Amino acid sequence: MKRRIVLTGAFIGMLAIIFGAFGAHLLKKYLSIEELNTFEVGVRYQMYHALFLLFLSTRKDIAEKTIKTIYNLVVAGVVLFSGSIYLLATKSLTLFDFKIIVFATPLGGFLLIIAWAVLFLTILRKKS
């Protein structure tokens, strides 16, 4: 599980760098400042959670089942939150109406919050 978490964290982080560069260098010609700022929010939260996964992989005091739960919440949350933000921020470049997926952003954010809450409560309940 630890290897999978590290690989996923590294992959999500790598994609965040790629998307950030893509937004900063290519999309700035086509998107408004507001759309670029929205796109950057997706990149930022994706990177935060890549680092979160790398941190999670170092924890030896958390049960494997709990780590797996946090991992699944983070991966699903990043895909839904950042993924939907990327699509919504670039909707002016396509003919598809991405408003259909607008529910994905708050759902993804909620999953990320739950992941952090599970970590917090797990550590809080541990005796020092």
From TrEMBL:
Q: What is its main location?
A: membrane
Q: Which UniProt keywords apply?
A: Membrane, Transmembrane, Transmembrane helix
Q: Name one Pfam family in it.
A: DUF423
The entry's cellular-component GO terms read: plasma membrane
Q: Is Transmembrane helix among this UniProt entry's keywords? A: yes
Transmembrane regions: 5-27, 39-57, 69-88, 100-124
- This protein's source sits in the domain of life called Bacteria
Could you confirm whether the keyword Transmembrane appears in this record? yes
Q: How does it sit in the membrane?
A: Multi-pass membrane protein
Q: Where in the cell is it found?
A: Membrane
Family statement: Belongs to the UPF0382 family.
| PANTHER family the UniProt entry points to | TRANSMEMBRANE PROTEIN 256
Spell out the protein name for this chain. DUF423 domain-containing protein
